[in-house]
Amino acid sequence: MQTVATEKLRLHIVLTNTAREALKQHVHDEHAFFNLQKAFVVFVEKLETDGTQLSLTLYFDPKVNKGLAKKFPERVCIMDCLFDLKSGLVAKSFRTRGIGTPVATNRRERLLVHFVPTRINGHTYPDKFITSLANLPFSKERYDYVNKRITSWEGYLKVLNKNAEIEDIEASFSSPRYNAEFSHVVMQLSGIDGKQWKQLKGLSSRVRGFHKDFGDVVKVNRGERTVEIELKPEMARLARRNELHFESSKIEFSNAATKAQLQRLLRGFERLKEGLAANANLETILFEDKPVIAARRQDMELDFHNNLNEFQRAAVVGAMSAEDLYVIQGPPGTGKTTVISEICYQNAKAGLKTLVASQSNLAVDNALSRLLSNKDIRILRYGRTESIEEEGKKFIEENVSAYWKTQTYEAISNEINEHATKEQQLNEEIADTKQKINALEAQKIELQQQIEKKQQAKEHLTEIEESILALKKQLIPLKKEREETEIALEKLRANIASYETEIAKLNKDLAEYDTEDVIQKRLEDATKQFDEVSVELELAELLAEQIEIRAQLSATEQKLQSLSGGASAIEEQAQEITALKKVFEVENYIEERGLRRSFVLDQLLMSLGKRQQQLEAFKGIKDVDARLQKAIVYSETTLGIHVSRLPLPPNHSYSVQEVSDFLSKLSKAFAEKKINVTNGTRSIQGLHLRKAYIDEQLHHYSALINDTVIIFGRLKDALIDALKEQQGANESVVKSIEEQLQKLKGKLTVTSLHIESLPIKEARPIETLRTIRMEADKTKKEATNILTIVSDILADKVKIEQARQVVQTELESGEMLLAETLVKLKEVNSTGLALEKEKEELEMLVKQNPEQVLADVEQSIVTCTAHISKLEENIKLLPVTQNLQKQWQQMLESANEHDLDEIRKLYVKHANVIGTTCVASANREFMDNYPTFDVVIIDEVSKATPPELLLPMLKGAKIILVGDHHQLPPLIGDETFEETLEQVLKESDTFEEKRELEKMLEESLFERLYKNLPKTNKTMLAIQYRMHENIMQTIAPFYKNESDELQCGLPDSDALRDHQLETPQFNRNHHLLWFDVPNDKPYFEQRMQEGASLFNEAELAIIKNLLIEMNAATAKAKEQGLIPVDTLKSVGVISFYAEQVKRINRLIEQEISVPHLHIRTGSVDKFQGMEMDVILVSMVRNNGGNGEIGFAKDYRRLNVALSRARELLALIGSTEMFAQKPKKREVRAMYSHVLETVKTQDGYRAFEEVR
Length: 1251
What we know:
This protein is α/β, with parallel strands linked by helices and 1251 residues long. It is 56% helix and 14% strand. It is built from 37 helices and 31 strands. The strands form seven sheets. Strands 15-16-14-17-18-13-21 form a seven-stranded parallel beta sheet, with helices on both faces. Helix 28 packs antiparallel against helix 29 (991-1002). The longest helix is centred in the middle third of the chain and has 93 residues, at 419-511. The radius of gyration is 60 Å and the shape is extended. The relative contact order is 0.09.
């Protein structure tokens, strides 16, 4: 809620006519209204904005506005307003509502306002008012946000309370049968119809003659006409004492409790929507994935009442220091209840009021029972008396006065019993206090000496720090010099390494070549061979040239002779050309004689080619013309069709093929006699048109033929002219050839003389010689290149070796310099370390705070002196005090009902720890008496549904959640939380609702908060005290990912969790067992004929055997004095499946007698929160299918099953089925870990070993 306003604001307000008229129904005018008080406490709510104006509502608080309350008794005054800086604050309406109307919410700002009514706009408003409006959320937006997110919860409630509208059912019962714990009774019913049988489950029952509820129906068997009722605690106690006597056989079944609970939950939803949560951040906590919460205060220093371990202390400190939310994860047996009681104690010391809530009465009463020993805590237990456990009943309202009277009477009686020795006790206390003062005085002197030493240390510390600073200044250049030298040396070493690499490479390269002498000899030999072969090759080439020249002389002489033909040859060739008839013959003639095609010849040939293509288009035209003529004659002579010949229209044309096709069709029509005088005119006209076109084309064809003949004649004339022109060119050619002939003769003479001048007269073939000379030349070049390479390599090697020697000299010099620098550094460091050590010692001395200790000692001396004075005063007043105590004792002894009622009122008024269930916290009476709490602690959060958690969370300014998300979510009747949510998902019809439900399925509220809150706002209690350490190892992996691993807090597990049993299957050293069942058909699970639940006969046989043996072992332990004779060994037999539990019950009730055992059975889900000395877990699933193990694959369910036992845990089931067959790797790993843990403790029992 909002903090108290201290600053008074002066606000001008303009009223509309509507608002003014509404006010006039109660007061004279607005001035009279605002003059009722000087200033009003109002709560301002910001509704929405249209972009220019804010819509506001002002709620006038009737509790503090006394003047207003007198005028409007039992009413809340409300003004609806608009606000903007231009128009100011404008009231548009006024109304009143009942006194129960919420005024203060976490969406409204509390302001102290002096209103100034005006009819003029444009006034200035205080910054505080404008800032307050800016910081307020839009309430409509927040309402819509919460409404949208909580829709899924409402759908969930609809399924949860599907029987809300059922009418009461009356029936007769007979043959009531109780279970072993007298917690359930089975009755046979009569007088119920078929529809009513379907409605019974979940209803509450009341037996006629009893004024209280009898219990709730948990199972219905229509076939046997029976119901199983879970008895209310009071009824169960009466049944155990054999005091439950039925005066009537009539029983009524009603859903009144369901309806009431549903209404409470729905009211909680509405309060959240309206912003009525005591913690303004609750909406974010509930709905945001990663809620932003208030920063934690500095850790408080606490004086713990309980003996807590480090994790419990951290949880208490964290919870006390948190502002609005703290989450405590408590694995099984880690002392959650102890932590809750400590937080309650610390809250009470701090003057805070605490609500302790949980889903079950048992959890509430367990938490409250730890607070009994503390007088500062005034506990009040709220709820129906019959539902509250014995531990909690002393704190219900009607019993608190008697409880307080008894507690106070005992305390005063103890004081009175000490009257005789009281003065002596006080004198002894005075003496002890004086001794304490003497010790404090001695400590004071010692502290003064420490202060003096501290001062000296401070002075010496300054000197040392100066010395260290000077050394550091020396270190800087030395370190720099060392670093620079090391870097330089590194470079030099790198250079040497590089040089050595290069030298090695050069040596490797030299090794690939012969020596210089060998290479030089090879070069000389190749040069000599090259020179000799060159002379021989020259001779061979001259001889070849001589032969070539002679051949050229002969050819030239023949050519010269052939060119002497004359004019007669030209005439003969002209006659040949004239005789040519075809264009291709002319082209062949030109090609055969090698005649040059002149430009004229090319042009004429191209013209003939074009005309040849044009003539192709007229191919077949003469045949078509003949056919046309025949058709015309036939039409005129045979058919007698005469038509006038029409002129051919302009641009009218046909192709030869088209005319041919027309004639073919016409001929066919003539043959089939389809054309006659009557109908043939049009066809014959078409015939004549085509004849006219063909005639025109024939004219073009004749002209084209004539043109072609002319061009062909021109072509042959041009060819003859070309021959004649060539003949004229030959005469000049002859002259040229004769000149060439003389040159060849001269060249031949020169070549012959050159041959005669050479020293050799014979030569090998030119190609052979050329090959030999080329090889010799190649050898020469190679040898020359190699000599150059080797020379270069040797020169490079010399240079590199010289450079390496220079670097080596520098390296040796640098290493000497580095050694000198290191010696200097070592000396400075050594001196510095000694000074640093001395400095640390002095700093430790300086950091000590003897001044504060001295002040505390002096204060303690003052306190002790005052205490002595008080004790001396008490001695003086002792007779008076003792007399008053006796009177107070007498008054308590004689207290009447009126006195006790007054005590009750005072106690209730000042109660600082109130305990109730989540749902009961929304009871209307409780809401009126306790609307809010400073702190709300909710225990076993994981076992409550989200709507149930909401109810107490609405009340807490600070919320502390205690639970364990690694255990199971709540059971809804006999269905799991997951099954119920799946049903709601099927019935939901909006995306948002489905998404919220899916989030609830994927991750509980507690898990989401624990994962996403900062470390400052959460703690895991990591030390468990319930189970033997060997048992704890099976669940340790479930908590591995947390900030701390689970530890065992028992100093000696073997001694503290000794089950004292020795059987053929195990002894006292065994605490963890797995009785294996083969994964074979004879041992497979079986399904009920009607229903989905499973059972396993093989496991039932093992359980039977174990219970009999444990009963005998318990009897023996009693004989040996290990177990008290009147004590029963508590054994829990649990299973993942309800049908197996039912058969286990039948086995215990009908087949065996185990008087030394206290046995409790149930499903794993229902056993959550319970613990027993021994737990047997029947795992049931065993099949040859695809590895499906159903409920057992949920690690949370396995965690609950494994963590119920204190002394001995025994699993009964197929190891192969659970550790090898499941599809999911993580499920196999989970059970494999359990199996390996069992085996390491010698707890594995193969099936054949079971007797």
